[in-house]
Amino acid sequence: MMMVSSPFGGGxxxxxxxxxxxxxxxxxxxxxxxxxxxxxxxxxxxxxxxxVGDVTIVGVDLMLVERVIGRLTWxxxxxxxxxxxxxxxxxxxxxLGLFVNQGFVLQVLxxxxxxxLSGLMFAAIGYSMSRGRRRDFSSASQLxxxxxxxxxxxxxxxxxxxxxxxxxxxxxxxxx
Length: 176
Hints:
Layout: E1 27-32, H1 35-47, E2 55-71, H2 74-99, H3 104-130, E3 137-152, H4 154-169
Antiparallel strand pairs: 1-3, 2-3
Helix pairs in contact: 2-3
């Protein structure tokens, strides 16, 4: 489960977590190259009956990685606009069909057609207005870390280090 804190709330969130962005506390008990490895380490601690409520995974040396997916063309822009419009149109048609007693299928089809047309129109207008002033490629951004440290509250950090040392000594095929 992933929780995101709100800058507007005070006090603590359910589970005792701070609502405001707060630097992590604790002693380092392990450091890993990937988030998956850090997650496996915490899973191992949990399976070893360790108090994982004392553990925090911290991404260090954060980077924003933007992966280029492809060139942005009129065809791709219009197809994307039509698809997003279709989803919205079907949703609107379903809602309308629930409240109108006649022609449920007609309401959904009308919503679909109007959604596709409006999606095409808005995509075309948006792309034509920005063409030449912005990039002509599509991409996906991801926040990644250079390494992932596992921190633990001092009261159980030594036991956590011992358990993770045992995990590191296991052959790779025996890891959880």
